[in-house]
Amino acid sequence: MTKTMRRWQITAAGRENLKLIDAIIPTPGPGEILIKVAAVSLNYRDKLLIDAGFGLPNPMKEPFVPMSDLSGAVVAIGDGVTRFAEGDRVISTFIPDWIEGDGPGTARHPNGRTLGGPVAGVLAEYVILSEEWAVRGPDRLSHIEASTLPCAGLTAWTALVERGNLKAGQKVVVLGTGGVSLFGLQIALLHGAEVIVVSGDDDKLTKAKKLGAQYGINRKNVDWVETVYAITNDHGADHILETIGGAHLDKSLNAAAVTGRITLIGIFDGFSVSGSFLPLAVKRLVVEGVQVGHRKALEDLVKAYDLSDTKPIIEALYKMEDLNVALDHLDRGPFGKIVVEVG
Amino acid sequence: MTKTMRRWQITAAGRENLKLIDAIIPTPGPGEILIKVAAVSLNYRDKLLIDAGFGLPNPMKEPFVPMSDLSGAVVAIGDGVTRFAEGDRVISTFIPDWIEGDGPGTARHPNGRTLGGPVAGVLAEYVILSEEWAVRGPDRLSHIEASTLPCAGLTAWTALVERGNLKAGQKVVVLGTGGVSLFGLQIALLHGAEVIVVSGDDDKLTKAKKLGAQYGINRKNVDWVETVYAITNDHGADHILETIGGAHLDKSLNAAAVTGRITLIGIFDGFSVSGSFLPLAVKRLVVEGVQVGHRKALEDLVKAYDLSDTKPIIEALYKMEDLNVALDHLDRGPFGKIVVEVG
Amino acid sequence: MTKTMRRWQITAAGRENLKLIDAIIPTPGPGEILIKVAAVSLNYRDKLLIDAGFGLPNPMKEPFVPMSDLSGAVVAIGDGVTRFAEGDRVISTFIPDWIEGDGPGTARHPNGRTLGGPVAGVLAEYVILSEEWAVRGPDRLSHIEASTLPCAGLTAWTALVERGNLKAGQKVVVLGTGGVSLFGLQIALLHGAEVIVVSGDDDKLTKAKKLGAQYGINRKNVDWVETVYAITNDHGADHILETIGGAHLDKSLNAAAVTGRITLIGIFDGFSVSGSFLPLAVKRLVVEGVQVGHRKALEDLVKAYDLSDTKPIIEALYKMEDLNVALDHLDRGPFGKIVVEVG
Amino acid sequence: MTKTMRRWQITAAGRENLKLIDAIIPTPGPGEILIKVAAVSLNYRDKLLIDAGFGLPNPMKEPFVPMSDLSGAVVAIGDGVTRFAEGDRVISTFIPDWIEGDGPGTARHPNGRTLGGPVAGVLAEYVILSEEWAVRGPDRLSHIEASTLPCAGLTAWTALVERGNLKAGQKVVVLGTGGVSLFGLQIALLHGAEVIVVSGDDDKLTKAKKLGAQYGINRKNVDWVETVYAITNDHGADHILETIGGAHLDKSLNAAAVTGRITLIGIFDGFSVSGSFLPLAVKRLVVEGVQVGHRKALEDLVKAYDLSDTKPIIEALYKMEDLNVALDHLDRGPFGKIVVEVG
């Protein structure tokens, strides 16, 4: 094992403050594991966080490692570790202290502790995590693919499966084709559901159909709500992944089936969602927030992918030193995930 | 049985178009029951409907009987009726065709068929209903009290119990002291929960505490959300009956506990609800619409009141001919329900 | 339309009392539909009922039409029918009056009204049903395939999906390879789950694997519970379709995962199920009875098959006049369903 | 603080091997709390465990502290403790590692780690627990009352509320008048439900009615199932706490309402439960095992009692040195709980 490693850190909001530095490889303490990182996937919230400091201690008092989602291998374990052994493939959990059930937090102090801010992140060649903050990685996915599960994959799973009890034959509307949306598409198909992708880009709709979406609607050409009515024989959508928010929620309220579920997904910090009361009441809709998900649900997601030939959609792969190019790509709204290959 | 009866009807939006007329007492057809009405309770939506024609066929082609909630006795049954016999006490169901489960309706055509508009209402001395549109009345309540269950009582029950799985020890925030809110208060207490009433009127708060509410918050004097934090030791509210809507939803989002439920109640037709995304996500809140409730839930509600000494709160009782005075009272925002005694 | 039709009827328990007769084609009354039957599938309970009169009025006072599951086309409708039009493909509902939710029945008088006993059955060229007792048939299945959904298909769906909230990656144990078991296999695969089939017949296990089962265990060669532990890495089975009953339940209790669900399926009339208390408690298991399912769940099942390339497994097809040969085949324990082609 | 304390220990199965000894008061390590015990309640399983070594390492290699349920005060905390401070009232959790959700364990190795066997128990003047193995005690209960919540109280809560979603107006059958049964009675009443107690002892039935049970049935005098039908107007019991097990389950299956829940409670180790299949299927019953409950549910139970005037039922109170007299009392089947006052 080399004694030093490369690690990205940021000292203040703004991409110009991102630095790739050399650091000492740390040693795991009691209950901790040392992970040799193979891949780190990027999320839109990482971009917001780097650009605007969202969620980070402000002003940042010390250098901070960005990003939350890693796949790698355990290379050393601390005293008392029982969940993992050296050589185990692992992926990180986005919210460190949420094992299952309702998890920590109160109304006044909701749990905002997530990897990559305010808890130290993972964009480094080696990372120390509590053994409780990782789960065994999927056998059938590469590190690059596996690194996309902890945030984007789990968010879609929590919305549709853990909370939504998705079943075969249901109608799922996916808005857009970002990371969570494409996981929503795949997870819906894994459960035998029908997927309607709504996008403003015909190329992306074509790609989504190649992934198995039964329908694609270009919202620039048609009223997507009316088209959902037509496709579903007036039934509407049983589940909607609402990734746009704001006043767009109103369209989702209209598109939803009786007792349909709309999950709000994304980073709308500081922005409202709004919608008409009438469809909410008369169709008895559920509008629900989702905060990625708990560790047990991540383990369930790993099991689901390990039974399937489905692979997470990677739009682009970057080298560790090319983080800024990767972030530029993220700015452009990729089809699926962007992953940084580490080491 | 007399051959004629008195019946209110309306021929166009506007209270001036309400008429108390004499009509022939009808005869029940197959599957129908004839009810001698004893009491009819008023709902805020009746007022909107009378004043503005909300939900009614427009223009009204024929005279229409207003109001939805009756308590009375079966005095004749049609062929094939099996659910009731002469002499049975009954109350009406607000939504005629919803027995249990998800019920009728689609995304494009949600089920808006409710008694008192567009389906003919019940403010008459005798009313014909399908036997499927009534349930056995509660033994321990008077007709006057029983008449308040079909809409206001059932709405609170559906929100807190049928959908909310309310349990002892939970914290319930009730906004205001109208019919649904006071039923929410009573139903929460029946289940051993803690009730926090938020109102702008100290007199009403005093009355609510006499009914058993553990806490009353005058929202004009203090920040009610902060007070909920303080009362619940930061936990927040497990259930909120959001009767205000609009931008006020945002306060409820902040007051809600982790995984708390906010039920939207009232008539906000044409108005939006809006709120910040962040508390929805980070606390994984559920915001849900409610459309009164199904027949089986109404039967459950009757059972609950029949086991309890709790009586629905009646603010005022009016004679049938004094409907306009009753509606004026409704305008002023009563504490609990207003009931018209019939016959 | 011909004026007469062929119809099977039975006048007393015993196959010798089955008669194929000519009868007048009936005319649908108000709310009824006349169906030209294309296929009728057989269930094990039909055999018990024909052989021993199980569930039938005893002594049978009048000729009785056996069998419950049809697929056909509407050829005439009665007054007031709104759910169907002439030409619509339909399948029957096994339990006539159960639309959704909990349905009819009490503790003292559970609902035992099912087609084919005590309600008149469907093995005839033309059948009259209430429009409420049928659902639109699946577009992607033939009549022969569709006829297998109302009882066997729906039973597996209710167990795994409607009640079980099956999700991708879960482990499902299917005991045997009869009609319900193979539907369980297919429905589990439709939802991305892992299927372990337990049988005493290697040929049937080979066939089950061809249908997609990931594992087959010959219970005559190995301890199937231990093998389930081994396959699932000690996790156990999240869902078990327990089709054997009696003392065998004990094995299922041991094979089940923590919080696993065991659904009791089959006709064990007069027989007990029994098992050890300890695994029930320490793993907090759910043992649940299933009574086929409600109409809305049948509609959901149709949607699921209409989205999929999966086809119900038909072991053999018989002509209407060969009912006795079909029943003999049923005696031998087929792999999947036996269907009678009608007309 | 004295340097030594009294502590019960057992070195082998058999009451004669119980010894009250002097021991050094331990010092809490990191993450641990030292509790000055005020009261310890006894459970039937403690008796089985002492008499027969059930669940204990066999042969016991070292002295073992019996009993699981304490109420006391924190008198010292170890490094890193955040959940409690000195002076806090606490009660113990029966299953140490189950915070919420499904908790630990697999099909092959269910989680059997409980206080008082095989994990060291609490019948001592001072006890060390991980801070994760305790919850804040109820403000409105004495230590003696509070000590009954961790096992008996939580078992009834888990059955009826956490798993059963009990609601006002439902019918609850409680078999017997032991600790769990009387908690079932109280918790059902707290939620506005109707309680029917079935016992073979008229005196106990009289006492149960004084506690609020609406009905008592002496099963020696009448067929209790028929009486439940009569009381509930044929509806049956929505929830049954089945504390007898064995073939008696069959009676509960018959007494249960459509979709009713039967929770198996007690120590039936080595014994089967058995029952007829037919009522299970046709009423779609749920038979469920319960393993006390998780920590979050215990916190919920504390909240419920803290909102209520209800006090746990204590049949008798013994001094620490009189453990054997207390166990003799337990042998006789008390009405409610037996508690040992400590220190």
What this model shows, in words?
4 copies of one chain form a homotetramer. Chain A folds into 2 domains: about 5-150 and about 295-340, Quinone Oxidoreductase, Chain A, domain 1, CATH 3.90.180; about 165-290, 3-Layer(aba) Sandwich (Rossmann fold). Chain A is about 25% helix and about 30% strand. Chain A is built from 10 helices and 16 strands. Chain A has helices at about 45-50, 145, 150-160, 180-190, 200-210, 225-230, 250-255, 275-280, 295-305, 325-330, and strands at about 5-10, 20-25, 30-40, 70-75, 90, 125-130, 135, 170-175, 195-200, 215-220, 235-240, 255-265, 270-275, 285-290, 315-320, 335-340. In chain A, the strands form 3 sheets. In chain A, strands 3, 4, 5, 6, 7, 15 and 16 form a 7-stranded mixed sheet that branches. Chains in contact: A-B, A-C, A-D, B-C, B-D, C-D. The interface between A and B is large, with 52 and 52 residues. Strand 13 (about 270-275) of chain A pairs antiparallel with strand 13 of chain B. Chains A, B, C, D: This is NAD(P)-dependent alcohol dehydrogenase.
